[in-house]
Design goal:
The chain is mainly α. It is 68% helix and 0% strand. This is Ion transporter.
Length: 272
């Protein structure tokens, strides 16, 4: 009985360090992890430089193996510290962690896979765990909810923009014609999209005065169109405000709990 309690205690402690960034130990762990990730990415980048690779091949290889082993230990520590390992293994971060650890091992069997270690750059997404103070995680949740709530409006808006580009492209095709580069309606629609989004590659340009006038209107219109999705999402964000922390459920890994929460909102497990 005592051994079971002891086992539970160290798992809870390990879970608190690995999955939560509110505690000093959790923040320290995440900072060390991010340093290791950055170091690993830098090593891979340096190894791609022939002169550096030839001179420091042994050092780079040993350093990369050390980091890979550390990441492997961390990956399994994440698995054993939760009640339902599959929740982590098949989660977004779980898949990223696995994909960023495997390439070095695969390089032993398959040549050319070592460069895939650069996938560890994706693990830098964990920086948001350090930044997930109550204010930041609350705002991130608001942003996600705002995106979901406004997806229908944005879809309608994008459909409208697409129709507008077709109309404007057709108009420019009729005004400019093939002699000025507008050889077809699809090509003219391409020009309209490039112009409306204010990208302006310059590979096609109107030459007639009226065509240039229409192009000027489209450019000005583009600035207003760019602002519309931002306004839609911002409007939705103002409707919600949540005070949350980084506390992660030891059972299902659900986070985003309020500061005074005692039980997981997702599965009901008591929080640490």
């Amino acid at each position: 009985m005592k051994s079971q309690t002891s086992s539970k205690d160290w798992k809870e402690k390990l879970h608190e360090i690995i999955y939560e960034a509110d505690t000093p130990a959790g923040k320290f762990f995440d900072i060390i992890l991010l340093i290791a990730i950055v170091a690993s990415i830098v090593l891979v980048m340096l190894e791609s430089v022939d002169s550096i690779h030839e001179k420091y091949d042994s050092f780079l290889d040993i350093s990369e193996w050390i980091i890979t082993i550390l990441f492997t230990i961390e990956y399994f520590a994440r698995i054993v510290s939760i009640k339902k390992p599959q929740k982590y293994i098949f989660s977004f971060y779980g898949v990223i962690d696995l994909l960023s650890t495997l390439p070095k091992y695969l390089a032993i069997i398959f040549t050319g896979t070592h460069s895939l270690v650069a996938l560890r750059a994706l693990r830098l997404l964990r920086i948001f765990r350090i930044l997930k103070l109550a204010r930041f995680i609350g705002e991130s949740n608001n942003f996600i909810k705002a995106l979901k709530a406004s997806k229908a409006k944005i879809a309608v808006f994008l459909f409208f923009v697409l129709i507008l580009c077709v109309i404007l492209g057709t108009v420019m095709y009729l005004i400019e014609g093939g002699d000025n580069g507008f050889t077809s309606i699809p090509r003219s629609v391409y020009w309209a999209i490039v112009t409306l989004t204010t990208v302006g590659y310059g590979d096609i340009a109107p030459h007639t005065p009226f065509g240039q006038f229409v192009a000027s209107i489209i450019m000005i219109l583009g600035y207003g169109i760019i602002a519309v999705p931002t306004g839609i999402v911002t409007s939705e964000m103002t409707k919600t405000a949540i005070d949350t922390n980084t506390q992660s459920c030891p059972n299902c890994l659900h986070d985003g709990h309020k500061d005074d929460a005692e039980f997981c909102y997702n599965c009901g497990t008591k929080l640490n």
